[in-house]
Amino acid sequence: MSYTIPITKVETSKVDTLDFNNIPLGTTFTDHMFICDYENGEWVNPRIVPMGLIPTHPAAMALHYGQAIFEGMKAYKDTDGEPMLFRPEQNAKRLNKSADRMGMPNFPEDLFVEGLKELVSLEHNWIPPKEGSALYLRPFMYADEPFIGMRAATHYKFIIMASPAGPFFSKRIKLWAEKQFIRAAHGGTGEAKAAGNYAAAIRPTELAKAKGYDQVLWLDAAEHKYIQEVGTMNIFFKINGEFITPKLDGSVLDGITRKSVIDVLRDKGFKVTERLITLEEVKEASHNGTLEEAFGAGTAVGIAYIQEIGLEGETIQVSDQSPIGLEVNDTLNAIKTGQIEDKFGWMLKTRKELA
Ligand SMILES: *Cc1c(COP(=O)(O)O)cnc(C)c1O
Fold first, then answer.
1. 298 CB less than 6 Å from ligand 1?
2. Under CATH, to which class is 173-321 assigned?
3. CATH of region 15-169, choose from 3.30.470.10, 3.40.190.10, 3.40.50.300, 3.40.50.2300
4. Averaged pLDDT, groups of 10, the chain, 355 residues long
5. Most buried pick, 47, 277, 296, 331, via CB within 10 A?
């Protein structure tokens, strides 16, 4: 289906006020946003308008019952300065999977991609040129029907915002293996990118930080034995030459970086296994010297190397001898910026014509 997306432009762009050498994290937004409304059972009125406040009724159901989901992705420039999106159709699919779990309506996947393309092509001047920088895109959906009572809302908004993001210098991170709080249980909402999951993670993360750790290592809800994820990233271990990442069992978020890392690793000839992995197994591998590397993987930082995992009374050290995660990160970045051939067919050009 093809859509007409009317654009109301700002009179003057604020892009000149941004210091591209010093981009503040998450506080700067581009000139415009994409909005679409859900009413009477359908998505109507897709449009691009100046970024600004949205009138919200105090009874808007998202504020009370938490029907709110989001996505996170980045736009890059290729070597010709052309804006490109990385696997946007995957984000569209995942948004709808989250929507299904939260009793929210699906958003048309082609309109999701079209809205991104239009917005990114309009805001191409906001894509930071520096290596490692990108334009972060935040598509999200929430219930904006004013109603007190427990049922699915009948009115929603779908919005895409864009925020320039500087290069991320990631140092090796320290994880706290969390046995008191959990992120996701079987049958819960762990697989959905639902706002409430993050609300529940804030306090445990603060406590881990107060103990001197960077992120929480989430363990399974029933036994606190199996490893799920790290902070808001998926996790990979290299043990004895083989990569292992927790399988998608319903309580692990199906990361697009995770998927892509698996494909790149296999393409480089590595064995990658998706299975349950216990903290105990990682501890043993560390002790007998077969734990070669471990890293988190997600859109925001790419690959974040893990230095150690802390638990009550002991610390699991992770070797920094194996650089494969870094190689994968470089390969992914080179694909995203058009420096090497996109042999997986992941990139989508956005430009119709540059203004
Ligand atoms: C978003 C997210 C990820 C990473 O997904 P990407 O698509 O790779 O960015 C992993 N875990 C959680 C909990 C997340 O919210």
1. yes
2. alpha beta
3. 3.30.470.10
4. 91 96 93 98 98 97 98 94 96 98 98 97 94 94 97 98 88 96 96 97 98 97 97 97 97 98 98 98 97 96 95 94 92 96 95 56
5. 296
